[in-house]
Protein: Deazaflavin-dependent oxidoreductase (Nitroreductase family)
Amino acid sequence: MLFGQEHVQRYVETDGEEGHDWNGTQTLILTVTGRTSGKQRSTPLIYGDDGADYVVVASNGGDPDHPEWYKNLVAAPQVRVQVKDDVFDAVARTATEEEKARVWPQMARRWPDYDNYQAKTDRSIPVVLLSRV
Structure:
């Protein structure tokens, strides 16, 4: 099973032939700019869609703190996204409460543990919309 940077490497090398379909769902590669290092950081994330936008969830497994990739995109919302062999620039933004209420059920169907993650943390898990530019 692919995970972490090995997942990113195989996904990129194979244009998503390896890594897009993962554990019964689909992933994209999100590349953000480190808020302190300025380095490019890539993470495989489960995704859904909301119209033309892609949707990802900053669950961090239900940990009390947001994942680093989310903190980085809040600081620098210009990101790069790869879905299979489609690589593009996007702008990331946290969904409004209304948008989150609409797309959360779709994301929980894709990865049912999202509901468990939300139940085990006091923070409101952010949903992020990625808009192609």
Notes: The chain has four helices and eight strands. The chain has a mean pLDDT of 96. The CA atoms of residues 33 and 39 lie 6 Å apart. The first helix runs from residue 4 to 13.
